[in-house]
Amino acid sequence: MADNFLSTVSTATISQRQNVAHALRESIISGDLAPGTQLKQNDISAKFNCSPGPVREAMRDLESEGLLEHYPNRGVFVSRISNREFLEMLAPTRLVLEKFALRDSVEKFTPIVIADLEEQIEIMKQGAKRKDSKVIHEADIRFHSITMELAATPQTLQLWKSVMSRIRLEFYRVGASPTLASQATHHKRLLEVLLSGDKKAIDRELEWHIIDTVVARLKK
Q1: Are 168 and 159 in contact (CB under 8 A)?
Q2: Distance in angstroms (rounded) separating the CA atoms of residues 120 and 34
Q3: CATH number for the 2-78 domain, one of 1.10.10.10, 3.30.360.10, 3.40.50.1000, 3.40.50.150?
Q4: Which 8-state DSSP code applies to residue 57?
Q5: Cross-referenced PANTHER family, in alphabetical order (predicted)?
Q6: Beta carbons within 10 angstroms of residue 120's beta carbon
Q7: The model scores a pTM over 0.90
Q8: Domain residue limits, the chain
Q9: In whole angstroms, how large is the CA radius of gyration of the chain?
């Protein structure tokens, strides 16, 4: 009886922690919580009607993702990501991980997986028609999540996920790569190259898709 009660309490605490982390993450990535904004544990606890424990753990989770920074004797603040950090660390890290995972993945692309990826491309098309950048950004992330969950080792996938919150933040900050209307076309091309199984072509396409288009946006 006691064990069941403790299990229920533990599950509830984890759920609160996940809910708080998700809400804060999405607010940071969307720009509702701007870089430099201070987050106070008591205020967040009151907003979510929960104890400080889950809030504290959720904030630690977001620190590990690079979305929050803790300064002793000052507090916790929404992180600032410089163009240099993005171009010289985050994007190259993502590129290495996706190259490693996807070079030898063609046999894993079943008809069901391909259909899922084509669905994300269609969502991008519809988002472009409505000029809805959020829909396009999330379909973009979903497209790449499907490919990495399919092809990456658990360790590679964990590393990839560790940088993707900040990658998503960059999507919202500087806009689509390079335009809303072109996202579907670029991902269709990427899918075609992945299905070709040509390792050199895959490397080239990923380099253009992940690095070159970002450089073009940041130089606007």
Answers
A1: no
A2: 28
A3: 1.10.10.10
A4: H
A5: GNTR FAMILY REGULATORY PROTEIN, TRANSCRIPTIONAL REGULATOR, GNTR FAMILY
A6: 23
A7: no
A8: 2-78, 83-218
A9: 19
Pairing of strands 38-39, 68-71: unpaired
Do 39 and 33 meet the contact criterion of CB atoms below 8 Å apart? yes
For the stretch 154-184, pLDDT in tens is 999 999 998 988 888 887 777 656 678 899 9
Domain 83-218 has CATH 1.10.1410.10: no
Given a cut of 50, the residues of the chain with pLDDT beneath it are: 1-11
Which structure tokens are listed for 37?
Answer: 């904004």
What are the tokens at 76? 């916790």
Tell me which amino acid residue 24 is.
L
199 φ/ψ angles, rounded to the nearest 5 degrees: -60, -40
Spatial strand order in the sheet of 75-78: 38-39, 75-78, 68-71
